[in-house]
């Protein structure tokens, strides 16, 4: 597990991709076929990249962009790190060696 918080995967969209494309959040959301509020929440790390959104991002950015699987792996890394910082689980091992 990472020792540091990995960036939310949508951070690269907000910080790099939108400025490079010269698009506003509203314009990008329209191109993606999603609600502006939904896309804004994603860009601000308030929601996760779903499987559907990963497919949309890949279709939107083209074949040379990160794969849907890559977006989901980045999201999983982020989610696991966040969960590991919040909770300590009291678990009894299923198998004792």
UniProtKB/TrEMBL annotation:
Keywords attached to this entry:
DNA-binding
Q: Name one GO molecular function term.
A: DNA binding
The signal peptide stretch is none
| Pfam families registered for this protein in UniProt | HTH_3
Residues in HTH cro/C1-type domain copies: 20-57
Output the Gene3D superfamilies linked to this UniProt entry: lambda repressor-like DNA-binding domains
Q: Could you tell me what this protein is called? A: Addiction module antidote protein, HigA family
Source organism per UniProt: Avibacterium paragallinarum
| Gene name of the encoded protein | higA-1
């Amino acid at each position: 597990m990472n020792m540091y918080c990995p960036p939310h995967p949508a951070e690269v969209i907000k910080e790099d991709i939108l400025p490079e494309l010269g698009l506003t959040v509203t314009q990008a959301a329209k191109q993606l076929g999603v609600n502006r509020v939904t896309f804004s929440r994603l860009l601000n790390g308030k929601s996760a990249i779903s499987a559907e959104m990963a497919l949309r991002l890949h279709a939107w950015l083209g074949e040379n962009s990160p794969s849907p699987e890559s977006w989901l792996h980045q999201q999983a890394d982020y989610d696991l790190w966040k969960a590991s910082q919040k909770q300590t689980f009291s678990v009894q091992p299923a198998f004792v060696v």
